[in-house]
Amino acid sequence: MPTTAPSLRPGDRVAIVCPARKVSHAEVAAAVAILASWGLEVMLGDTVTAEYHQFAGTDELRRADFQRMLDAPDIRAILCARGGYGTSRIIDQLDFSRFAENPKWIAGFSDVTVLNCHLLALEHESIHGVMPLLFDQAGGEESLESLRHVLFGEEVSYAAPAHPLNRLGTATGELVGGNLSLLQNLSGTRSDCPTTGRILFLEDIDEYLYNIDRMMVHLDRTGKLQNLAGLLVGHFTDPHDNSVPFGQTPYEIIQTYAGKYNFPVAYGFPVGHEPQNMALVCGRTAQMIVDAAGVRVAYSTT
Predict the structure, then answer these.
(1) Tens-level pLDDT at each residue, the chain (302 residues)
(2) Is 273 a catalytic residue?
(3) Which of 100, 132, 220, 284 is the most exposed, fewest CB within 10 Å of its CB?
């Protein structure tokens, strides 16, 4: 089973770093105040305010900053400030040996899917959840509270209403997933991780419909769907179409491939690039129940 990081306690020190796109002090100021209100001490990494084109500093700066927080024994959690693009450029240069001796929570989503999957491949849990840039977004209060619950070791469970494409059933397995584009990009790399017997969750933003289809074809052809325990389909925000319509919505595209198998599927799960982005622990065993009322997800207690 993947290793679980110790729960946070008031007085613990946490870091905010930028492994991908740049961010300013002003953009994380609200997050610093919120984390302080949780009783945490916040350390800002050197990548906060650093700039190198669209990145939060050069690859070497972002790698060194993240490595420093991985190795620091007094840092109990690393929160990735935002996504964008860039984590995959540094992931193979990071050394997780000290982290393995002294695990800590690493949290984020979108481009941070690279870290979520890499850590799971190394058999460590991590958090797919809202990032500091979005801590004060309108309508995101429940998502932020779910992150606090997970960080502090409190119980969480989630529910979503019924969707006409849902396939009913019950599944139990470790959670794995995140951004569909990144999951495809990680295929065949050291950050790739198996899906067999696991509950996969998917989300994405700003993708063309044909490309969502192409990525689902790739997941299917590489066997990522065949032996799933279950599938949670989150937000597919702001999809694009060509002048000649593709002819299916994102959920209909996913159903084309998920429909080949018999595992339970739930659409409209609150995860992804929208204010409803509930914190999920990648690598933790969960149970999903899909019935006429919708879907319920809770972590196994045994």
Answers:
(1) 899 999 999 999 999 999 999 999 999 999 999 999 999 999 999 999 999 999 999 999 999 999 999 999 999 999 999 999 999 999 999 999 999 999 999 999 999 999 999 999 999 999 999 999 999 999 999 999 999 999 999 999 999 999 999 999 999 999 999 999 999 999 999 999 899 999 999 999 999 999 999 999 999 999 999 999 999 999 999 999 999 999 999 999 999 999 999 999 999 999 999 999 999 999 999 999 999 999 999 997 54
(2) yes
(3) 100
Q: Which of 88, 110, 143, 181 is catalytic?
A: 110
Among candidate residues 203, 207, 235, 274, the one labeled active-site is 203
Distance CA 139, CA 79 (A): 20
Domain ranges of the chain: 13-142, 157-299
**C-alpha distances in angstroms, 264 versus 2, 150, 297?**
24, 25, 12
Structure tokens at 219: 């997941």
Task: Tell me which CATH code domain 13-142 carries.
Answer: 3.40.50.10740
CATH tag, 157-299: 3.50.30.60
Name every residue whose Cβ is closer than 8 Å to that of residue 52 and which is 6 or more positions away in sequence: 22, 58, 61
CA 284 to chain CA centroid, Å, is 13
110 part of the active site: yes
DSSP 137-148: -TT-HHHHHHHH
E strand map for the chain? 13-17, 41-44, 75-80, 105-108, 126-128, 157-161, 169-179, 199-205, 230-237, 265-267, 280-282, 285-291, 294-299
CA distance 256 to 234: 16
Q: Residue 191 catalytic?
A: no
